[in-house]
Amino acid sequence: MTSALLWTPLAFGLVGLFLPRRLAGWWATLGAAAALGLAIALLAGFDSGASGLQDTVDVNWIPGLGVDYSLGLDGLNVFLVLLTTVLWTAGTAFAAFREQERPHLFFLMMLLGETATLGSFLAQDLLLFVLFFDLMLVPFYFLFGVWGDDREDGVTASAATLKMIVYTLIGSLLMLVGAIATAIIAADGGHVTFSIAELARHPVGEGSQRWIFWFFAAAFLVKMPAFLLHGWMPDAYRAAPLPALAVFSGVLAKVGAYGFLRVVLPLFPAAAVEFQEVILVIALASILYGSVMAFTQTNIRLIAGYSSVAQLGFITAGIFALRADGSDGAVLQMVNHGLVVAPLFVIVAILVERSGTEDLRKMGGMALRAPVLAALFLIVTLATLAMPGSANFVGEFYILNGLFDAKIVFAIVAISGVAMSAYYALRLYQRTMHNRLAGGVESREIGWRDGVVLAPLVLCIVGLAFYPQLILKRTDASVQRSVSALETPVPSTLARK
Amino acid sequence: MTFHAPHIDYAGLSPVLALTVGVCVVLLAGVFKPLRPAVTALTLVTLAAGAGLLIWQWNESTDLVSGALRLDDLAIAISLIALASAAFAVLFSIREPATDQVGPGEYHALLLGSALGMVLLAQAQNLVTFFVAIETLSIPLYILCAANLGRERSLESGLKYLIVGSLGSATLLYGMAFVYGGSGSTDFAGIANGIAQRGGVLGDPLILVGIGLTAVGLAFKTSVAPFHQWTPDVYEGAPTPITSFMAVATKAAAFAVFVRFFDVGLAPQANDWQPALAALAAISIVVGNVGALGQDSLKRLLGYSGIAQAGYILGGLVVASEAGVNALVFYLAAYLLMNMAAFAAVVARERETPYGDDIRSVQGLGRERPLLAWPLTISMLGLAGLPATAGFIGKLYLIEALVEGDYTWLAVFIAVGTMISLAYYLRVVAAMWMQPDRERAAATPAIAGASPEADPINPDAGRRLYLVLPALLAAAGTIFFGIIPQPLVEFAQHAGASLF
């Protein structure tokens, strides 16, 4: 079933090429929904107490090179897989309601992107992971480049996309070398295997860990993006078509954070401990820089984009607390952030349609005749700023809990990020929805089409706010296993109960 | 007195014989007017016969002609790649103006003659056959490069290739003389013995100079930097089908003898020559990738990309291990598929747009000719080493061999080179899919390498099956071996195992 989940989107995408143009979008939505159904079925059959892999598939793929096609679910990825399928269904439906140029190609690329993303979450073979991680770029290269907008100041969509690709591949090609080096060094002349579980059992020597760690960290930090490696983000975010950007920002950034949990902590524990503070500094810089940028930007896409930088900084800080609590919180927060940022981009799309501009200063007063839209937006906003009562609050709480336990100074700085998130989230909400109705802006209620896309996502946020245990309970056992390779494993709060 | 004729292994020589007969038949067919239309078919039949006989000899491992040639799976694998490339070139040559200008019989006979030289070169294990084979493959190419008589660029290309190629050959021959002088033998095994007796490559200046010059001569032929300067110019000027043939087949055949000379003959002295060749590989990766960045001519771009790819492939040779040779053969096979998909599109666009091989010729191709745009896209993504293409698996294979052979730094070079390469490969993709075709109306024709007077525009060239089908086939192969690489991995492993 895991394989079926992985390949369903791509299969639908390929069949969709042969359908009439007007059906292409709905067919793709059906494909994304089918994947969602499979993901829910997998979650239903998920054994929440177990720490090991479930629903595994393991086939010798390239025996000559020691690469296996091996997939599996555990507490680390099960909700990320679910998040992927949820957001993709929403994103595809949102796009299907709108006229797309060259719809066949657009939806093929959307679904190829889903398969690649699911693949990188599901892969349990290091090389397969790298393969899917790189493959994610191809569909998004086309989505951003072909359907993106050229800017008036001369930055074309294809140039912005190229920048993104080069940045991301700098990391991921080094990661390929790192992955191969890990396997070869671990094999020590014997049988080469890329199985992550197998490699975790025999970590490579500390000297090798040191440089391989950075090869992996570079790939993951660029993807998030983290401070200093975020240069591709502003251009790409401004060029990208919004349905694709919603899933990109909601899910793809998480693959980087997930990579730390899945690969770096178990495989390079010594290096993770050694470079803990370096990564924490980068994470805190991301929080501060992202927040400051988010409340000074006037382009609403970039406000959402920089807020993601800050949030991903939080998640990274949680993981590099190197405590089970921090990682529990990180996994929860990854899902939370995906669930808030995707609707945020859908709302951005709606706002842009009503005001004809992406400039925050030219907006305002849109809540006037659109109470439902305003209410939905408000829920998303409050979740973004981690209002107590939201699942985001729980996530940040766990992250900070872990961080306090590990490095109190870093925790204190990180807390300022929580305060700043309130500022930029509320600023975005107020400037667009409140104040006087700005000229050229139309205050119109959300249509049923957008409502069908937006409401379920907001419902997910609300549902998770009531019951974050849904995720934490299933995640904890796997997180414990992931951090167990570290020198001083500290049991999580959940486990101590 | 009884006379014993020497034993001749006709089975082993059969591919070479078939090609030789084919050269004569095709040449004669070109002379008789009624037979002229059949020349293309006859050439393809010859290539198919040669390939069939080679496959028949698969798993064979024998010395031929008193040890001058060695028929093993490496030779067969490389020969098959070269013949496949020749077959693609023959298809691309249909309706190529150059064919009629020099005469179809002569054109195809020369092409086959060059392919014959490649098959011989892949088997050579003696300095004499080595040199004879390399000249057999080069001389027809000098002529073919200049085959487009109506175009100055083509003539320039032929002349340039003749001069630089002769320089390369002379260097090679000079080196061989030193090697013979130093080791007292012309066959590779004897050379290895002679060198071992004289205390290794570094032990005797005579041998050191000889090996160095031989390596330089081979670097000329494989267009490894810094001996690559001729490549972009010659590739750009030559008729495009010939460029495609040179880009893949020449490289493959020269790498075969490169492997045989260094990885087999000089294997015991590997430590002496490895750093030098590794440096060449690194330089090649940097020079090729940086050089390709600003190119507007697709053929020049592919030429520079070929220099970079030669650097990657050389990495497989540097480690002097079975895994390295496997990776090299795998990469060459993938390289064949990726390049053929690209060249098919370039040939088609050259004939149907006024832009020649300029990058503008592919603008809007995604909308206009999806059946060519997809192969070219897949080819570019594959050459850039993105996943789900044979190019990715090839890089993976090379990097694995390099890390295993303690050349991780060269693997990092490959990774860095690949990053740079994205900038130009994706530029082509962007031109096809992301730029509106309206800009084309205003543009001026007559770009590098093409003049409309010499090459009349044929607006339907991009629909011709003899271009579309090879492009689709090569692209499908690129994807297929990117997803199910095992058959090609086994093919490469056979080739590698026959040496070690």
Layout of helices and strands:
The complex is a heterodimer of chains A (497) and B (500).
Chain A: H1 2-16, H2 21-44, E1 54-62, E2 67-73, H3 78-96, H4 103-122, H5 126-135, H6 137-147, H7 157-187, H8 196-201, H9 206-223, H10 233-239, H11 242-267, H12 269-274, H13 276-294, H14 300-319, H15 324-355, H16 371-384, H17 391-406, H18 408-433, H19 448-466, H20 469-483, H21 493-496
Antiparallel strand pairs in A: 1-2
Helix pairs in contact in A: 1-2, 1-4, 2-3, 2-4, 3-4, 3-11, 3-15, 3-19, 4-5, 4-6, 4-11, 5-7, 6-7, 7-9, 7-10, 9-11, 10-14, 11-14, 11-15, 11-20, 13-14, 13-18, 14-15, 14-17, 14-18, 15-16, 15-17, 15-19, 15-20, 16-18, 16-19, 17-18
Chain B: H1 10-31, H2 39-56, E1 62-64, E2 69-71, H3 73-92, H4 97-102, H5 104-123, H6 127-145, H7 152-183, H8 188-197, H9 205-222, H10 230-237, H11 240-265, H12 270-292, H13 298-318, H14 322-352, H15 365-368, H16 370-383, H17 390-404, H18 408-433, H19 439-442, H20 465-483, H21 486-497
Antiparallel strand pairs in B: 1-2
Name the helicity range of chain B. Answer: over 70%
Derived from helix and strand composition plus strand pairing, the structural class of chain A reads mainly alpha
Number of strands of chain A: 2
Give the termini separation of chain A.
34 Å
Q: Total strand count of chain B, please?
A: 2
- Tell me the overall shape of chain A: globular
Strand order of the largest sheet of chain A: 1-2
Order of helices and strands of chain B: HHEEHHHHHHHHHHHHHHHHHHH
Oligomer: heterodimer
Order of helices and strands of chain A: HHEEHHHHHHHHHHHHHHHHHHH
Round the Cα radius of gyration of chain B to an integer and report it. 22 Å
Q: Unreliable segments of chain A (pLDDT under 50, ≥5 consecutive)?
A: none
The gist of it:
The complex is a heterodimer of chains A (497) and B (500). Chain A has helices at residues 2-16, 21-44, 78-96, 103-122, 126-135, 137-147, 157-187, 196-201, 206-223, 233-239, 242-267, 269-274, 276-294, 300-319, 324-355, 371-384, 391-406, 408-433, 448-466, 469-483, 493-496; strands at residues 54-62, 67-73.
